[in-house]
Amino acid sequence: MGGGTVIVESNNDLEAQIAEWRAYVHRRRELLQTDAEELEDHLRSRITELTEAGLGADEAFLIAVKRMGSLDELSREFAREHSERLWKQLVLPGEPDAPAAARSRRELLVMMLCAAVAALAIKVPALFGLDISGDDAGFYVRNVSLFALPALAAYFGWQRRLDRRVIGVLALLFAIGAVAANAYPLADDSQSTVLTAIHLPIALWLVVGVTYAGGDWRSDRRRMDFIRFTGEWLIYFVLIALGGGVLVLFTAGTFDAIGLDAEGFINSWLLPCGAMAAVIVSAWLVEAKQSVIENMAPVLTRVFTPLFAVTLLAFLVAMIWTNEGIDVERDVLILFDLLLVIVLGLLLYAISARNPAARPGLFDKLQLALVVSALIIDVMVLLAITGRITEWGFSPNKTAALGENVILLTNLAWSAWLFLGFLRGRMPFARLEHWQTRYLIVYAVWAWTVVLAFPIIFDFV
Amino acid sequence: MHITKDLVAASATPLVLGILAEGESYGYAILKQINELSGGQLEWTDGLLYPLLHRLERLGHVESAWETPPGGRRRKYYRITDQGCAELVEQRRQWAAVVDALRGVWNISQSITPITAPAWEAGR
């Protein structure tokens, strides 16, 4: 009986050893599940042969592993044969196994459903006689975010299994947005229409952020994830838009060649429906490839931070050198708002990809230089402009532009202060991250204020 | 005797195809057969057989299927295709030419000089 126990024990040992070896193999990206299985079968055959020749299980295992060759060499050979495996595959899981595949297929279906809803939603007003390319363009401009974003929120709500009460609150916010965009008696060419068209998407995008965070919108981590998501989403959306442009060109060209005019179809179906669906598809792509490919936004940030820093510094030097004041025109505020948005974006995506524990390096100093030069330039612009603002009076556009400038300036000024503290080793990097994620609330409040209060304050101008 | 890596690599394809021409087989059995055929002279790193088999499959010389023999483990079997047979014939022609040429070289060199270490090597 004693001999039997020994064999059972050594069998257990062997299984444990093989399991350990299998775990090592699984860690290799070049080796698929089926390859691992094939190699394991080989290993077991070798071990069986060796034990039958009289070796102990331990020795047999060691020799079999040794004869299999080093995993490095093996994965190199596999990589050479299956080089496509190093290019991570995106859309659908290649291997037809595991419940994960079923889940991602279900997600794909729901995503397509939401995209279809978004695409059709923009055609619904046409049923009531509102023409997208004609006189009612103002209606579409004000409501553009109300077609796709509810569908996107629904997708995340489904995927994250949102709480019913949270869904209720979010639906209410969308309803308020719809009322604000349509209930006020605004002329199509009024300033407030334009402001609503710009700010309602921002306000509702942040509402989508709540669904993205699965309702856990107070969490800093989730907010940072949403910032990351936003950057990647934008990149995918632009890529899809580029592809869509090619599609439009071909559609127009090929139909033109056979004497059919596709322009009507393109303008009233292909472009609006495609754009709405692209909102959902981009979001889904970001989620699906999250762990697959390096995120692009931080990469672009790395490339452009030095370039923008140099440009801004050069601009500063030139401004001081020539002693030329900024030519204060009406649009200059908007231009510098956009500059601050870009600098903030560069800062945000550098933060989002940074390892919070890493020591400050050259790139961080560059980042600080970028932020500080943007701040100095903006303060000069503001100083130059305050004298003139009374002259122009407070129109909705001027007020919004000024308000945004102040909001961004505050954010960047405090960021620069925190950044400086971090570079001098007095503050942990997480403080800066915390500041940025907290600040999202300010954007939300401001965007809703512009949408809801501005038309009333400025008498529907 | 140690056979160099290059020679092992060059002879791998015809060996595997030739063995599969006899009937379908799986990795471990193929390796064992190569070992027996070469009298233990041809030593492979076991794992490297599999990338080779996968390459032959991609090229269409062999095809594979997972089978589970009754009471056994699931195992991947390889089978030669018609295209693989044609490739084997071609490889065989090439190897015959190489072997002929080598035979000629051995004959000449044997008749001119006995196999001794060349002078420059002896001088080192």
Chain-averaged pLDDT of chain B = 85
Average pLDDT confidence of chain A is 85
Oligomer: heterodimer
Total beta-strand segments of chain B: 3
> What is the annotated CATH architecture of chain B?
Orthogonal Bundle
Q: Please give the largest β-sheet of chain A.
A: none
The sequence of SSEs of chain A as H and E is HHHHHHHHHHHHHHHHHH
Runs of chain B with pLDDT <50, length 5+? none
Radius of gyration of chain A: 29 Å
Shape of chain B: elongated
Computed structural class of chain A: mainly alpha
**Largest interface, chains and sizes:** A-B, 21 and 18 residues
Strand percentage of chain B lies at 5-15%
Structural domain count of chain B: 1
Major β-sheet profile of chain B: 3 strands, antiparallel
Briefly, what CATH class of chain B?
Mainly Alpha
Question: Please, what is the CATH homologous superfamily of chain B?
Answer: Winged helix-like DNA-binding domain superfamily/Winged helix DNA-binding domain
How much of the sequence of chain A is in beta strands?
under 5%
How would you sum up this structure, described in words?
The complex is a heterodimer of chains A (461) and B (124). Chain A has 461 residues and is an all-alpha fold. Chain A has 3 domains: 2-86, no CATH class; 100-293, no CATH class; 295-427. Chain A is built from 18 helices and no strands. Chain A has helices at 2-26, 33-52, 57-68, 71-81, 98-121, 124-127, 137-143, 145-159, 164-183, 191-212, 220-257, 263-289, 296-322, 332-353, 362-392, 396-423, 430-452, 454-457. In chain A, 29% of the residues are buried. Mean pLDDT of chain A is 85; it is low at 91-97. Chain B has 5 helices and 3 strands, in the order H-E-H-H-E-E-H-H. Chain B has a single domain (5-109), classed as Arc Repressor Mutant, subunit A, CATH 1.10.10. With 124 residues, chain B is mainly α. Helix content of chain B is 60%, strand content 11%. The mean pLDDT of chain B is 85. Chain B has helices at residues 5-21, 27-37, 49-59, 82-112, 119-122, and strands at 25-26, 62-67, 75-80. Chain B has a 3-stranded antiparallel beta sheet. The A-B interface holds A 34-35, 37-39, 41-42, 44-46, 64, 67-69, 73-74, 77-78, 80-82 and B 26-28, 31, 45-48, 50-51, 54-55, 58, 66, 73-76.
